[in-house]
Every structure is written in C-alpha cells, then in structure tokens.
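Subject: sequence -> structure tokens, single chain

Hey, anyone have a minute? Need the predicted structure for the following. Not urgent.
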Amino acid sequence: MSKLSEQIADLTPQQRDLLVLLLGRKKREEAARSRIAPVSRSSDTFPLSFAQQRLWFLNQLQQDSAVYNVSGGVRMEGPLSVVALERALNEVVLRHEALRTTIRQIDGEPVQVVNSPHGFHLTKFDLRNVPQSQRETEAQLLLTIEARKVFNVEGGALFRATLLLLCEEEHILLLTLHHIISDGWSIGILVRELMELYEAFVHGRSSRLAQLAVQYVDFAAWHREWLQGEVLEKAVSYWKEKLAGAPSLLELPTDRPRPPSQGFAGARQPVVITPELTGSLRALGEQQNATLFMVLLAAFKVLLFRHARQEDIVVGIPIAGRNNPDLENVIGLFINMLAMRTDLSGNPTFRELLDRVRDTAVGAYEHQDLPFEKLVEVVQPERDTSYSPIFQVMFHLGNLGIPSFNLPGLTLTPLDTDTGTSKFDLTLDLAESPAGLKGSFDYSTELFDQVTVERLAERFQILLQAVIADPDAAISSLPLLSAAEEKRVVVELNEAAEAFLHAPCLHQIFEEQVAQTPQATAVTFEGESVSYADLNRRANQLAHRLIKLGVGPEVPVAICMERSLDLPIALLAVLKAGGAYVPLEPSYPGERLNFIIEEARAPVVLTQRAIAEEQSFANVHVISLDSDVDELATESTENPRTEVTDENLCYVIYTSGSTGQPKGAMLHHRGVRNRLLRGFTDYKLGSGDVVLHKTPLTFDVSVWEIFAPLLSGARLLIAKPGGHQDTAYQLELMAREKVTHVDYVPTMLEVLLEAEGLERCENLKIVTAAGEALTRELRDRFYSQTNAKLYNLYGPTEASLAVTYWVCEPDGEEWVIPIGRPMSNVKIYILDKQLQPVPIGVAGELHIGGVAP
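Reply:
Had a minute. Here:
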C-alpha cells in the first residue's frame, strides 16, 4: 500500500470523499506553483493541446461521424426573451476563445485558429404551427438531427446552438460542440454562464461574470512546456510499469463479430439506481475507506470479469484535468483518460477486490498528468484497427452535466441528447442526483444488440444488491441472474420432453417394425436388397449362436467388418443376444485391434473371411459371416428372449483419447433410443425415406445412419467400402437411390457442394451436419445449391450421438451457427467453474443430463 493509501485508510467514514479532495488539493497546490501565463496574441494561430492533437488525428479517420459531438439540451418553460438569449450566446462566445476556435493545417500541421468575435447565429425552428399531438415527436426528431450533424473540423465553426419554439411559453435549447474544443464539464459551464447572462440581460443589467484569467490556448501552450523532463519521465515510468503485460483486448461476448475497422455507431440503455441502494453502496465504501466511485468501479469490474472471463481487466476512467483553479471556468478540452488496471485473480471477496481497486485508483490519480495520447505513445500497445488501444470499456461517475435551476419566470430542465454514437465497445456513465444514480450503458451497435445490453444493465443491478447483501462473498459466486433469466436457462430451455411408447431396446423396436412391415425393403447394398423379415431372420440366427457363446447383457462383441449386407445383421444380432457391440476399423494395425478387444474384454469377434485371413485375432472366438453361412443357417429364426433392459450397454466406441491411447465410450440403450426416436420432433423418418450409410462404424454417426431407418420403416442404403471417400460415387448413388436423409461432417459437406451432381439429388429432404463447427458461409452455400433442409447437430461420443440441434434457416441472421436447443428428454446446462448457470450469451462449460448419457 502506498503512503497516500495509508493516509486515506486513517480517514473517518464521514470523510468519504476526502480521497478525491486530497488528491485535488495536492494537484491544485502543485499547479499554483506553476501558474499558467497568457501567451502572446500577436498571431491568431496556436499549437494544439495533446488531447486536441490525438482527437484531430482520430477525426481524420471518422470525418463523416458525429462520434466526437458533445451535446446538451435544456427545456425552458415560461416566457422566453429570444433577444436576450441571443445576446447571452454572443457574450459567452466573446468570453471563451474556444467557442470561436477553428482548426487549420499550416504546412501539414494542424493548429488552432482563434477567430475574431462576430455575430453568433442561433438556428431557430418554429414548431408552433405543428399539431400538438405531433409537436413533441417532431421536436425529438429535430434534436436528434442537430445533435448528430457532423462538424467540418478543418475551417468550420465548431459550436452551434439550436432553439425549438414549441409554443409561446415552451422552448428547447440544444447546444452542440465538437469535442476538440469542449468536454462534458464545458457544457455545464456553457449553460450556467448562458443562463446567468440571460437573467442579467432580461433585467437590463450588464454581465457580472468575472473575466477569465486564461483561455484554452494558454493552457495548451503551458501544458506542452510543463510536461517535460522529470515530470514527464516520472509519469511515463509509472504507467509503463503499471500497464506492462496488460491484455490488449477485453473480450466481452458480442452479438456480432468485431468488424475489421472500428465503427462508432452506438445506442444508449438507461440505468437508474435507487437512493436507498446508492446510500448502501456509499456506506460500504466508507467501511472500506473507499469512495462511491471505487465501489461502483469494483462492481463494474466484477460484471466484466463474469462476462469476459478475464482476470486482468483495464477500464478507462475520464478525469476532469482541471487541476489549476484558473481552469475551472474555462471551456475547452481538458478531459484526460486514466487506464485503471485491476487484478481479479484468486477469486477474492468483494471487500478484497475493493481494496485492490482503491489502491489502483489512488496510484492512477497521483499520476494523472500524463495525457492519454502520450500514454498510448509510450506504452505502445498492440494496435488493431478493430478496437481502441489500452482499453475498450469506460466507466464514469460524475455530476449531472447540466444543472437544473430556475430563473425568474423560467424553469429549466436538462434533456438527454443522443448522438447515436459510442466511442468504446461499452461505457457505463453514471451521475449523482437526488433520485440516486442515473445514467446509461452506451454501447456499440456494431457489437451488441439492445436486448443484450438490457440484460447487462439488469445484471448490474442484481450484482450491486448482492454486493450489499454479502460483501464478503467471493466475486465468482455473487449472483447475476434474475429469477426470470435463471428460470429460462435452467428450466425453460430444457422443457423438450416426450414419453416413450415403444419397447425399451433398439432390437425390440426393430422387431415391432418387422411385424408391421415384414415385406418392405429394409436394406440395399450394391444392387441387392433384403426385406425387414429376412433381415430379422438372419439376425436371429446369428444372435442364437452368440447366446450359445455366452453373449448376454453387458457382454461386448467386437465387430470388424467392411460395409455390406452382413453389417446390419451383425449389429442387430449382438443387440438381440443382449450384448453390446464394439466397432473396429479393419484397416487398424493388428496391435491396436487386439488392444481394444482385450481392453473391452470381448469374447467374440464378428468379421468377414478376407479380414480374418489378414488380421490375427488372439484369444477370441471369431465368426466370419460370409464363410460361416451354412453353420449359422442351422440356428433358430425366432426372436431371442433375453434379460436385457434399456439400462444395459448398447455399444462401446473407442476414441483415440487425449493421449492417443484408445478409450471406450459406453452407451446404453436408453440414451441411444431417445436420440433415434425422440431426438427432435420436427425430424421424423417414414416408410418412404431412404438413409445413406457411408460413415465408418467407429464413428457414432453410423449408429444413426444404420438404426434410425430400421426402427422407422425406412430403407437403409449402404455405400460400398471406401465409398465415403468418393464424392462422385456418393452423389450418383444418392440420385439413383432417391436418398432423402444424409449426414455429413461440415468439411465433407463442403467437398460435396464443390462437386457436380448435387442438383440431381431431387429427393434429398434433410442433411444433418455434425462433428465440426458449421459456418455461416457453408450454410449459405448449401441453401444456394439445394432445396433440402439443413440441421446442425452437436454431441460428444459419450452422450448418445447428439444432444442438441439447430434448424438452419436460409436467411438466418446468426453470425455463428449455434449448437442449438437440447433434444427431447435431454438437459443442457452452461455452467461456470463454480457450477453456477452463466447468463445468456456468456461462455461457460457444457453440462449434459437427462437421458443423453
């Protein structure tokens, strides 16, 4: 803790704002020892201040934007003397050189030009003849237009005033300045002096305002001379150390990708914090020897931490920059920006975080003299045109820019003006008032939707209340969700539930289908077909043989086969015997195959003669379906009866695992049945559908490709061995066999779309994409080439094929294709590290429940 921090820690609670006062007094004393002297007026051109220089450069990049407009409006009720108002405006312009300053380039360098006083023009709009029901709407439209009208920085006037005449005793005055000659404090000065002069002129008095000791150009010259040598070196040293290694970007979750070049279109979401809550926050600060500003900043950083999931957060803080008493009543650009960096690591309590924020704030205020433009120059952060340097989020707590006060016969009420811009990704701007804290979240509309910021504002309120309720809670556990939002993410998004009306296991559902459509074609392969009855008969014969070999519930059976008519027979036989199949890729090295067989403890391998001759299966009973036909034909054709239930294993698929060692994912009938029969209600197979099976058996997509049609009365079409690698073959097969449903990994779907022949697949109705992220570009390309419907599916191997789905629409506005909603009877939760539900739009870890596993 610094020496100044120790001093502040000894202050009494009643001196809650002494931090700011102490620092302000220190700066004033320093400034008093270095008085600002007026510069020579022998010329009308003067150098820009540091702040002006940076703003001029930025304005060159945004010449058609109102992002640097500063506006303030007042509604005036009562009899108004327009003559006195215009006279007062001219007097204010005469008093403040900044209001008649323009910018000009001389030899390529921008300079300030202070123009001679001349009659200031007050623009007037007479709305008294507009119907009263439309008058307010028309007034708001004009105010918006005037506030957003772009200034010509090079050579044009940088201050304008607009008066709207609503009726004889109601007017609105809008004052708009370019930021290069003004700041928020200046707007308050302008309105206050304008009203004091107006009152004097109405009563026939002359101005009583004290003459200004210095003007803005005097400050600009003094500041450039003062900020050198030891003063500059001390400030630079502090900030370089403070920001060393700071993250270049605060990655808040956005509704759209960040554009290549930062835009400044913005909107505003109001925020109101009640007097009661404001008082409680202030009292909490007093307990910790911190100001209300520090409490709010700490809470804001928690909000950012919980949304961006970053522990190192830099937020911009504007300060008035008027340390010299001679500058308090001068209009100009004095505001400076401080980079408040806070370490939120270690999951501190809010009290502990508040201590960190307090110490950071004290240090920052002690070294506030370095202009932000100089800070950027010396720190040299990683530059990117898509976001602002050092920080992208700002926080401000101040007083209301335009005070409410009354003149004899005239009542003035401040108006909120919106330029429709945002200088940063997000700004929380609050001001103290009798009604508590009032302000807004200003946000970039290129990044955020209104509903997103509405939620953010609501969560901030909830967070503040939680901080008061338990300031000793860890910042990661402070609640953010309203009851409505928590209900939505925990309950409402998981309400897709359907009962099961079929038998519990896959083979039993197949047997029911056989009874309904015994003569329908079940499987087609290379021109050969088998009916449902024949497929069931042959599978029963193999199942009875497996039972004799000891296969039953929870007993794994390895299947190492190429695609053929024998493949669905083998799969169904294992399930009918009560066992669980373990798919093996025939091209795997023998060592890997035998490792999986041994690790799974499979007593039987079902294969084909060519594979059995090539591979050496050790310590296991081998059945070659294509060479043991006569022997299997002697077995019973009746459906076996076993004790298997939907809680028993259905299959075990081995994945490579993170270390490369094969690991088995064990799936039960219950979850697989749910996916095949109750996945998502608007996607059902029927007797007229044809599903293409071309995925290797060791990938779980094959489970759907094979069993979904066989449980639904549809036809299973099996691609030839190696066919999954031949796009032309697949397209020809899909067109000839009138395939209606197919699944592709997005990478292979892209290859399919690049090939010729997709237009011939006229019967294609649904394509599902799974296994990789589906891009918006691929979705758009898909719909430009086919009339089929595209689904995006997601699900780990351990969770029964897929657990979520998203229906991709041709004109969908989403910029990232989501994994979608949970399937029927599946529960999906997005949780943080503390296993708490994260807010909508915030990243977290996916947790899967229900009947998916």
